[in-house]
Design brief:
There is one protein chain. 44% of the residues lie in helices and 20% in strands. It is of the alpha+beta class. It has one domain. The termini are close together.
């Protein structure tokens, strides 16, 4: 499953469903897809997400076993950057944020 986040103030962000749900929960949301945040709730969700990302950076994720590819794993804080930028733009423009699955 893919989840797309959207708001009028920023380009759509699409990410894998498991990562999206994890980030939604870090924002203080239930993690249900589809869903939305009202404009007045965006700053609090952004603050929750940034605090959770900061805590995540303090405790590094366990290393996955070596796989066949040579690509390093992408950390959750790094995956969250586009969503953080979308939430910042939504907070500044005072607009709602919505997300839905692309099954």
């Amino acid at each position: 499953m893919l989840v797309t986040f959207s708001c009028p103030a920023y380009a759509n962000i699409t990410m894998f469903g498991d990562v999206a749900v994890r980030l939604l929960k870090m924002m203080g949301h239930s993690g249900t897809v589809p869903g939305a945040l009202l404009a007045e709730d965006v700053p609090a969700a952004l603050a929750h997400l940034e605090a959770a990302i900061e805590a995540q950076e303090q405790t590094p994720e366990p290393q996955a076993p070596d796989s066949d590819d040579d690509e390093p794993p992408v950390s959750l804080p790094h995956r969250a950057l586009p969503l953080v930028e979308l939430l910042k733009a939504a907070a500044k423009a005072e607009c709602d944020v919505m997300w839905d699955s692309n099954q």
